[in-house]
Amino acid sequence: MATAKAPKVSMFTYQGKDRTGKVKKGEISGANPALIKAELRRQGISQVKLAKKRAEISLLGNKIKSEDISIFTRQMATMMKAGVPLMKSFEIVAEGLENPKMAEMVLQIKNTVAGGGTFASALREHPKYFDDLYCSLVDSGEQAGALETMLDRVALYKEKSESLKRKIKSALKYPITVIVIAIIVTVILLVKVVPVFGEMFQSFGADLPLPTQIAVDMSDWMVENGILLGAAVLAIGVLIQQSMQRSLKVRHGWQRITVKLPIFGPIFYQAAMARYARTLSTTFAAGVPLVNALDSAAGASGNIIYETAIHNVRKEVEAGTELAVSMRGQDLFPPMLLQMVSIGEQSGALDDMLAKAAMIYEEEVDNMVDGLTSMMEPLIMSVLGILVGGLVVAMYLPIFQMGQVV
Hints:
The protein is mostly helical. It has 15 helices and 3 strands. Strands 2-1-3 form a 3-stranded antiparallel beta sheet.
């Protein structure tokens, strides 16, 4: 049966008078002005004037990030486990959040629930921040009367997912940062330093050594075409970013490339296995049927290759094949994961075995990131030495030759 679409909640500013005649001002969210005025009358505020609040545009952002969702989930789980009522939990969590945008969204969720909606339906009004997996798990917890337990599982899932993202980002951040700095230093040398040496060498009237001539020619080209080059690089970067966001084919193509990269590919592979095991463990433990749990795992895989393979596994499981046998037929899942899934199915503890497998692969990603950082440091320093040191040597070669002649 189709679910009725929840009304859109907006933020309003209000001004009115309480029972003593004192002017009261504030902000409140609701589906429409009539409902908001009725709510304010219940609070003893009359002669209400409402104005819809405009969305604030901030250059610094205050955007809601996935880390904010993880913190919100953990705090809600903690409050509910401590016996705090749901509505009071919303208020306490909203007051403690540092991100005002996140706090505003929590209050919107609270007002939706106060208006008669369920927690899951309130979350579905914000699909940008709460995906189908999150909402489905919360819905299951509400229906089973175990919302605090389900929130704890969702919080653990979000925390593990965020930890995995941070590890992958740290693997990419260091080399990218150093390479960008190396490029900036090289450009500064070519644009500011080399031309000074070039003018001085021209006054000597002698032929320049080949490395020095190459550096001077590169400097001349950079001075003449630097702005055009920078604009082209910026335009290409924006084009790639927009293509990744809007084109599914481009995004899938990039995902196929990442798993084949010589150094980073194994990290992406281990991370995908960790996400698969963690998602499947969380959903299956929450009482979600295995076929539906595989759908959630496919959506959370983050790569079209694994997403396609998991969908194939789902079809075979739906036809009656065991999960371990279906996974083995895809020739994509590692032997250890296959063995653990097989043991879990035979022992009736599939969710526990998947959780243990997720922990193993998450630790493996952590170890690989540490090893990659140790390996990349000398390699990056060598690249820096060749770029910057090569330019410096090229500039001093004519001076060395003049010293030998003298």
